[in-house]
């Protein structure tokens, strides 16, 4: 009586004191009485005391049953002490206490939670015959660890040992196949379920609909919605959300509205996921007013907007150039108790044209404990580059590294471009070296900045074409393939220096590398050939340009017409003049 009274009042130390007194006085102590204390200690998360008391029970020669053992093992597993639970069970086996299937299931589940699938499988192979719950734990654990062959084997093993799979068994497997986009395998399992007399439920259909949507099987997803209703399975919010998101991503807003009507007719209320999908769908379609109205509608229906809702709307405002409204929405968001996250701040910084405001937002992030990332810093660096605030841009790189944010290609490209435009080629090269040292690979944008924006023109001014050529060769040998802009910049440079042979060779090389010449390739070649009084070659290039479907600009037409006129070729001048008018090009365009 006293022992139980102390337990009921949470006086566990006193209860153990009574136990010690009973042992010293050689009273008979029953396992059932001790189980009450073990359960109470487990419920109060006092597992050290629970484990210690169990040890006292063993020392006092209390007849331990499997039920007491289960309480302690379950408590240890809940506290994440799976190895300790396993050791205890193995010790008890040596003392003649045979664990039952529930004990093993508890341990197996513990190993699965700790991602120790191999240990779980070993325990599943012990002498106790596994039940459906055992197999479900093992199948689920293997699916989570993406060991996809093992769940199939376990299902076959269940049949072999006549352990009947239930809805949970099939749902776990169907979900696994759908997530891996193996919807055919998932559909086969539906047939297997029917043969075994196991009815698919809401989770089964939701997994199948989601899997088919992700795979792009939209008609099949729609068919499954009809089928589930015929089978008496009522679609829930998750079902509709999956389909609504699918249609929103495809921009099929008419189908979305039909689904919303269907949803409401069935008494299924839209939730935050529904509204977020609708707002995002309208954002993609440019239905700005509809997206704004949805915010009002969701609040009216008691659905609280979250960070995703506000972030989508802030993005809409910025894309529409409504900066002030975006900032007001952030204020509305905070007033409603919704904390802006990294996405919110990044959208606000990226969309802000005023660098002073953008920097204030960066400071606001620190005050709110929101850690910046690349997407935060890159628009700040680029914005300062465009404004000519080079010292600020450089400082931001230092600050970025100090905050342990790893600069990416976009970061370095902005800084390299900045140095190139300032003519600081040494600094541009240093930055590229720094970039490569940090394991960030230069891309075509990097080389365009170096070659097109600065390096090549810098070399041309100094007459150092050799260096420019070397840079192109470096590109051709490396992993970054030179693009048409780089070749055009070099061709233009050779033309300006009247090195026509090299310019033509480069054009041939460019084509060999799979770059088709465009207007920017032909124009400097034509103009330079005319300047060299090589009008035959210029006309050949001019005709070749047109044959390739490239319309010459007004300056090219004017230059060629002028050259033909000087050569006394009036028929060709008139033909080209008519050709210009037919193309909608007039010489007035050149003057304006």
UniProtKB/TrEMBL annotation:
Family as reported in the entry's similarity comment: Belongs to the PPR family. P subfamily.
Keywords: Repeat
Keyword Cytoplasm annotated: no
Source domain of life: Eukaryota
UniProt signal peptide: none
Lineage: Eukaryota, Viridiplantae, Streptophyta, Embryophyta, Tracheophyta
Provenance organism: Acer yangbiense
Gene3D superfamilies: Tetratricopeptide repeat domain (1.25.40.10)
Coiled-coil region: none
Protein's recorded name: Pentacotripeptide-repeat region of PRORP domain-containing protein
Spans traversing the lipid bilayer: none
InterPro entries with a match to the protein in the record: PPR_rpt, TPR-like_helical_dom_sf
PPR repeat extents: 65-99, 131-165, 166-200, 201-235, 236-270, 271-305, 306-340, 373-407, 408-442, 448-482, 483-517, 518-552, 553-587
């Amino acid at each position: 009586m006293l022992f139980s009274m102390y337990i009921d009042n949470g006086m566990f130390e006193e209860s153990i004191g009574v136990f010690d007194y009973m042992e010293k006085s050689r009273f008979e102590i029953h396992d059932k009485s001790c189980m009450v204390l073990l359960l109470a200690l487990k419920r109060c998360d006092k597992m050290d005391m629970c484990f210690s008391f169990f040890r006292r029970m063993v020392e006092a020669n209390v007849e331990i049953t499997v039920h007491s053992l289960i309480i302690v093992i379950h408590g240890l597993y809940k506290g994440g002490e799976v190895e300790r639970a396993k050791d205890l069970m193995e010790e008890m086996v040596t003392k003649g206490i045979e664990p039952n299937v529930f004990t093993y299931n508890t341990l197996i589940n513990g190993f699965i939670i700790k991602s120790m699938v191999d240990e779980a499988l070993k325990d599943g192979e012990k002498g106790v015959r596994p039940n459906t719950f055992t197999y479900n734990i093992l199948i689920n654990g293997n699916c989570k660890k993406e060991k996809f062959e093992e769940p199939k084997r376990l299902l076959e093993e269940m049949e072999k040992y006549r352990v009947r799979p239930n809805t949970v068994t099939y749902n776990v497997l169907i979900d696994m196949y759908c997530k891996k986009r193996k919807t055919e395998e998932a559909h086969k399992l539906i047939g297997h379920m029917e043969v075994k007399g196991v009815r698919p439920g809401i989770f089964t259909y939701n997994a199948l609909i989601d899997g088919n949507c992700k795979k792009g099987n939209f008609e099949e997803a729609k068919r499954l919605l009809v089928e589930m209703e015929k089978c008496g399975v009522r679609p829930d919010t998750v079902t509709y959300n999956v389909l609504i998101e699918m249609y929103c991503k495809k921009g099929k807003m008419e189908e979305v509205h039909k689904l919303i009507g269907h949803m409401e007719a069935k008494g299924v209320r839209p939730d935050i996921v529904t509204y977020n999908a609708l707002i995002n769908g309208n954002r993609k379609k440019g239905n700005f007013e509809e997206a704004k109205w949805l915010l009002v509608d969701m609040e009216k229906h008691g659905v609280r907007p979250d960070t995703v809702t506000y972030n989508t709307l802030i993005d809409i405002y910025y894309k529409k150039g409504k900066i002030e409204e975006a900032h007001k929405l952030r204020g509305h968001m905070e007033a409603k108790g919704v904390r802006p996250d990294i996405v919110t701040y990044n959208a606000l910084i990226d969309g802000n044209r005023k660098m002073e405001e953008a920097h204030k937002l960066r400071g606001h992030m620190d005050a709110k404990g929101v850690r910046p990332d690349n997407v935060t810093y890159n628009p700040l660096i680029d914005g300062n580059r465009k404004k000519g605030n080079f010292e600020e841009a450089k400082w931001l790189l230092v600050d970025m590294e100090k905050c342990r944010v790893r600069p990416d290609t976009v970061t370095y490209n902005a800084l390299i471009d900045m140095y190139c435009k300032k003519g600081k080629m040494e600094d541009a090269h240093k930055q590229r070296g720094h970039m490569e040292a940090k394991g960030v690979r230069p891309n075509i944008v990097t080389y365009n900045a170096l070659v097109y924006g600065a390096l090549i023109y810098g070399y041309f001014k100094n007459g150092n074409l050799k260096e420019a050529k070397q840079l192109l060769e470096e590109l051709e040998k490396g992993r970054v393939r030179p693009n048409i802009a780089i070749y055009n910049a070099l061709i233009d440079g050779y033309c300006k220096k009247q090195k026509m042979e090299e310019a033509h060779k480069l054009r041939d090389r460019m084509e060999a590398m799979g770059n088709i010449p465009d207007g920017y390739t032909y124009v400097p070649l034509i103009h330079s050939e005319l300047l060299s009084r090589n009008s035959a070659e210029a006309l050949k290039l001019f005709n070749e340009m047109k044959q390739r479907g490239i319309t010459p600009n007004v300056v090219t037409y004017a230059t060629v017409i002028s050259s033909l006129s000087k050569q006394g070729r009036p028929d060709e001048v008139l033909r080209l003049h008519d050709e210009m008018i037919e193309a909608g090009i007039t010489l007035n365009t050149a003057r304006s």
